[in-house]
Amino acid sequence: MKKTLAFVLAAIVFALAACTAGLSPADGTTADAGTELKTDAPASTAQPTGPAAETSGIPDTQPVQSGGEVLPPDDDGEIKRVVIVGVDGAGSAFKTANTPNFDRIFANGAVTYSALTMYPSLSGDCWASCLHGVTPEKHWITNDNSASKTAANPACPSVFKIIREKEPDALLSSLCNWTNVNYSIVEDDIGVYKYGRANRDDKVTEKACSYIAENDFRFMFVHLNDPDGALHGVGYGTSAHTKAVEGIDVHIGEIYDALVKKGCAGSTVFIVTTDHGGNGMSHGGWTDSEKYITFAVTGPGVLHGEPGDMNISDTAAIVLYSLGIDIPDWMTGRVPTGIFDGITAEPRPYESH
Ligand SMILES: [Zn+2]
Questions:
Q1: Predicted TM-score of the model (pTM)
Q2: Taking 50 as the threshold, does the pLDDT of residue 4 lie above it?
Q3: How far away, in angstroms, is 178 Cα from ligand 1 center?
Q4: E-only strand ranges, 68-171
Q5: Angle at 217 between CA 216 and CA 223, to 5 degrees
Q6: Higher-pLDDT residue of 169, 23
Q7: 3-state secondary structure of 128
Q8: Can you list the alpha helix ranges (DSSP code H) found in the chain?
Q9: Domain residue ranges in the chain
Q10: 26 CA distance to ligand 1 centroid (A)?
């Protein structure tokens, strides 16, 4: 009986694994086949030294109590770091999927399911706008050239490079399922820890959690991809797509809880965003289900409610504002109204599509 049960369980596990694998191709451009790649800087065992951490009297790393009890968050009101979890192809699906982690994390945060992405609604174009704070016309990165290290317009660098110029010692990291992000969007040679693992959101999440535990960092970008795989394999808004978003919700909870376990969730601006939705089994166009995306943020000083007129390029401005770094004049993304007290957005300098 036991053997039979074990066999049945093994068969189910195998079937699920095969199913997941079938649903998670990368975005359709080059990706590494399941191996850890490019490390631009060592994953540092080094302890930390963000400028904000130096000036705070509160130690950032607190011991975890025995028995798995979680310490209260470091809630002195100072923002010490920013984490973005970027969920490829999830569109506005967080609105209807069963996402208990998303719901608890952003219960007091600013959340919208109708932020606008960029046109075309493709991953390369849109993640670049997220992290460079400008339109595709200005950052030059497209889905087609996103595997190239020379695709980006050097006049509009990513937030990684802007932070690096202000904070030479800050620990920065980019951990991606879709590894093109670490070729074209995040610059080389600026000491960003890069990790890539195609088709394995679980491994990317695991690495993000261990990085959080071991490093006192300033900025982390985590890219997860399963909803995009389900979109291309089965269709946007299908039960398989919804299930993929619900699987991502578990990973979001794991990453956030790594911050809680370290005692630093209360000093972290934590963002979940997506790059595009879908129309059937594709995306790239400008239908409502492709162009509307989820954007959620919580952290010290973040308001509760719905931000107004949010565009994916505003994400870069929010990151810099959170870290106390001036937003460059060339950056067209800006901090939307309704995220930080006292901040009212300037009119957008370009027409949204
Ligand atoms: Zn995408």
A1: 0.81
A2: no
A3: 9
A4: 81-87, 110-116
A5: 130
A6: 169
A7: helix
A8: 2-22, 51-55, 100-105, 123-132, 136-139, 159-166, 201-214, 226-233, 239-262, 288-291, 314-322
A9: 1-31, 35-61+68-322
A10: 9
